[in-house]
């Protein structure tokens, strides 16, 4: 216990700070006594016995009493007076200590079961209590423990008295320092007065700034003094500085490093916009004698001020370690900063130093105002001189305007002169249209500005009655230009690069120029009227000349129309001649259909315009369709000089809105009494005042067109009737030929079937008995052989008879004869079967058929043509059959197709061989396969001399043949085409190149079209 006591007393003596002493004491006492809570309770002066726990060390499982206030009367009545006398209370168990119930309840609230309370006496007064609480259980306190606590309390009382002595010594030191500061302040006032007097000796800002920075640096003995100026966007730069030798110049540094300005504006200035907590001067003095708007920052050490890394980087560039920054105000506006930097080390800035800087910053603000006032006086003097110069220039401008009557020259001169007089970037003249829209007609601008391309100016907000005149900043100024009593336009001056306060003399100058422009416009208009009258007379003479020329041209055009009966030629001639005669951009002919819709059938167009066929395919005007031609059916003519004049019917808009027409004339075209169509002439580039002779010309052309159309249609009807008769005759011939061919094929079929039937009966008898004949012959030869064995030496006359008959030859040759007869009979049977298969007389309807069987039958019938002849080698037939299912078709008709195509191939090969145009083995290649969509593909190709293109395109035409007269009818391929395409819904075509043979390709569905669909 003694060791613990010595340790606690030693720690109390080591410190003079009362807070540290109490914190260490409660911790050491609780650890030494191994108790649950140790606290220091202080009585509040002048409040009786009320107070609170101000220091405490407590176990984690128990409630803290720190800042808990007490004012219980039980404590006052029972123990406060005893404690004031220095008495110690020790309770082993609060419930057995004989204290009042209210005191027990208070201790239970604090979780106390046993405690020791020792008074803390400061100068004979009860200052507080040292409380030791046992919360976990009751505790029998030992005498040594109580004495330990008592000794600790006594040393704490001594520490309290020492703290009071120290506070008194500090107060006396502070009073002495204040007295010294007052003396120093008097000296500073003299110094400030001298510095301010030097500042006031000049009105030149540069001299003032140079003097201020140099004097301040010398007075407060610092490393750098600088003046920083803000820009309107709160960026800024150092404009003056005084720096001790050996340190960098911030003005030179910011010129070499542009990013320094960015850092200043984005970091330093942002930090300076508010007074931070790190300003120890403002915090300690609670603002002192300086308001928030006067002192921005006082920093003794930049590294202990809590600044951001960005701000520290900037300050390190400045080489600053400590600084004072003072605001410079120009009136009520923050103009810049007065910055004082200590670079060598930290610095504790004194109040009088800050006061000096605030006084200097105030004088700098006054100097700024004085300099600005002086500058204003100089500007006013310059403006007066400039106004006089403008008056002289105005007179010169007016004289130049009056020298010319040409509007363009007047406008150009005016805008150039006014721009020079006012010193602006742009001067423009704006002209109103009759509907009060308008456009810029003249523009003079400084190099680097884009010209105005006829926009609407924003005049509403400036010319409206609600706008009040005044001397305020505007980027443009408008004055009216009046032609007599009528507002003609506006004279506009623009200041584009900056805001500008327009002066009254500038407005008056612009107004005078506007008046002179109005007078010049009246004079120019009078001259223009005289010129217009002269031009009208000249135009009238020109119209007379053109009218005569048009009469001649009209006669020539009518003659051209009458020369032709072809409608297209008539239309082309008419549109071209009308466009040439009227000198317009577009002429069209529009034809009505039977339902009164319509389409453009002819057009003549000037270069550079889009044809009407690319704009609209057909125009179905609802109005014209519903009214069956509308007023045009009654012969009305529509002539529009300008589509913007609004004197035409909206029903005609559909005919012109997509043609970009500005003026047009439309006349009807009648075919007899019926409205046939419309003839229209369009002027796209500009309005056109249609003359009477132009309208008459167009009407006469439309009349001649009606006559020409009627004649052409009569001729067309005659041609159509002639063609219909020729077509009917051709169809009749084809039908007759097809009937003949069909009858031939039917007769041939019947003949083939009859021959096959007649041959079949005897050949069946022969074929059936050959077997028996063969057996009988073999038996006879066996008998002869047996006779030879039994009678090896026959009679002489029998031997002679055997020799005469040549029995050995007969025995050898007769079996061969019988075998040949058997082969021949089989061949005849196959031929009969092929003839029956080819004829198929019993299959008039569609039925499933094996096409390979039909092809093979056709080849068998044509076998004699395929065999070698005296002059020609045999034709090789190559069959590449695919796996085909049965095809539902007309079998006989399909066989007829195969017969026609293979016959043609044989003819082509024989022709090529006769002309020595083929040097390889003649071949016919037949291929079959199944392709997509249930379709059979059949190819029959030869390696003959091929077919020319002009012949190939006509081979399926009826009666077309390349063979000699009497060798072909020209119906075989035509009939084959009808069988494949019309009867079976298939396809047939021919692929051929001269010298490379010919190939016929057939596609036929496996089922009839209805079944496939």
Number of helices: 26
Largest sheet: 6 strands, antiparallel
What overall geometry do the principal axes of the alpha carbons give? flat
How far apart the termini lie comes to 118 Å
**Class by alpha and beta content:** alpha+beta
Helicity, as a percent range: 40-55%
Query: What is the residue-averaged pLDDT?
Result: 79
Q: What is the number of beta strands?
A: 29
How are the strands of the largest sheet arranged?
3-2-1-6-5-4
User: Roughly what fraction of the amino acids lie in strands?
Assistant: 15-25%
Low-confidence stretches: 268-294, 453-473
Rounded to an integer in angstroms, the radius of gyration calculated over CA atoms is 65 Å
Q: Topology, please?
A:
Blueprint: H1 2-14, H2 18-33, E1 37-43, E2 51-58, E3 69-70, H3 73-84, E4 89-91, H4 101-109, E5 114-122, E6 125-134, H5 143-200, H6 205-220, E7 224-230, E8 236-243, H7 250-256, H8 259-272, H9 280-285, E9 295-299, H10 309-317, E10 322-330, E11 333-342, H11 351-402, H12 407-422, E12 426-432, E13 438-445, H13 460-463, E14 473-474, E15 476-483, E16 486-494, E17 500-501, H14 504-563, H15 567-582, E18 586-592, E19 598-605, H16 612-615, H17 622-626, E20 638-640, E21 663-671, E22 674-683, H18 692-790, H19 796-805, H20 807-839, E23 847-849, H21 851-861, H22 863-866, E24 876-880, E25 887-889, H23 891-914, E26 923-931, E27 935-942, H24 949-952, H25 972-983, E28 987-992, E29 998-1005, H26 1009-1012
